[in-house]
């Protein structure tokens, strides 16, 4: 949209705080350019626009979670079957965490995440799900009371850490390992105040712990004290006690 027909081009133009004169005068107004639906829409796929979307995800996440009570993030596989011992353990952990005074945060999906949310809901606690946009996304499970969906993994992982006082990690796959090692790295490098990380399921995690000790530490790639950054247990009460002890609740 330009200058109406029959009207001379102005010699001076004010666009917000900017003054333009003579040849630098632009056709139309800022509102016209904002509201004009014509033109190339490729700008919505550019990096500057992505930065705005990323910022909006942080704002939405902070706003939704800022008033949570003390919380524990529970990680685990989306493929855990509802009739499995691991699922039942997730339910018991979610319930026990609420009874210990915590809200429960998960990835909001099915499997182990659903189990922990279910336990938290049954115990009448705060059940939180932080979902992620994936090609095979199934949506937030029905036991989530506060849910936030994210486009970007790194924004979502920030929320897991920022609003939790500790992590309980159930058996899981690559996504669970990603979340686990993100947490271990943040604690090891002191990017965050130390908080407890509990691996639930000694048989499942044994191979990983052995590899860390016998290959990573033995090869000088990590310190012996790094093995103290996490605990391993099969007992729900012990997992909750470890979280309670280290968070001071």
From TrEMBL:
Question: What EC number(s) does its UniProt record assign?
Answer: 3.2.2.n1
Against Gene3D superfamilies, the record matches this protein to:
3.40.50.450
Q: Which reaction does it catalyse?
A: N(6)-(dimethylallyl)adenosine 5'-phosphate + H2O = N(6)-dimethylallyladenine + D-ribose 5-phosphate; 9-ribosyl-trans-zeatin 5'-phosphate + H2O = trans-zeatin + D-ribose 5-phosphate
Alphabetical UniProt keywords: Cytokinin biosynthesis, Hydrolase
Asked if the record carries the keyword Hydrolase, the reply is: yes
| Alphabetized InterPro entries for the sequence | LOG, LOG_fam, LOG_family_nucleotidases
Regions of compositional bias (Basic and acidic residues) in chain numbering: 8-24
Give the residue ranges for region: Disordered.
1-33
What general EC class does the enzyme of this chain belong to? hydrolase
Domain of life per record: Bacteria
Similarity remark: Belongs to the LOG family.
Q: What is this protein called in UniProt?
A: Cytokinin riboside 5'-monophosphate phosphoribohydrolase
At the highest ranks, the source species' classification is: Bacteria, Bacillati, Actinomycetota, Actinomycetes, Kitasatosporales
């Amino acid at each position: 949209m330009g200058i109406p027909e029959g009207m001379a081009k102005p010699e001076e133009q004010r666009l917000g705080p900017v003054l333009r004169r003579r040849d630098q005068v632009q056709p139309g107004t800022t509102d016209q350019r904002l509201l004009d639906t014509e033109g190339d829409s490729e700008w919505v796929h550019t990096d500057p626009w992505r930065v705005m979307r990323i910022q909006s995800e942080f704002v939405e996440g902070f706003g939704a979670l800022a008033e949570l009570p003390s919380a524990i993030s529970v990680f685990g596989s989306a493929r855990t079957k509802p009739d499995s011992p691991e699922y039942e353990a997730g339910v018991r952990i979610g319930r026990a965490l609420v009874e210990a005074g915590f809200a429960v945060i998960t990835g909001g999906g099915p499997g182990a995440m659903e189990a922990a949310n279910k336990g938290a809901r049954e115990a009448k606690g705060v059940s939180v799900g932080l979902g992620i946009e994936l090609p095979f996304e199934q949506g937030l499970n029905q036991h989530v009371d506060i849910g936030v969906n994210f486009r970007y993994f790194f924004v979502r992982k920030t929320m897991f850490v920022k609003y939790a006082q500790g992590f309980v990690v159930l058996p899981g796959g690559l996504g669970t390992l990603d979340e686990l090692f993100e947490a271990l790295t943040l604690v090891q490098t002191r990017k965050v105040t130390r908080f407890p990380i509990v691996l639930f399921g000694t048989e499942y995690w044994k191979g990983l712990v052995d590899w860390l000790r016998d290959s990573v530490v033995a090869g000088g790639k990590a310190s012996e004290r790094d093995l103290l950054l996490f605990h391993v247990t099969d007992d729900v009460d012990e997992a909750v006690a470890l979280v309670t002890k280290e968070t001071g609740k």
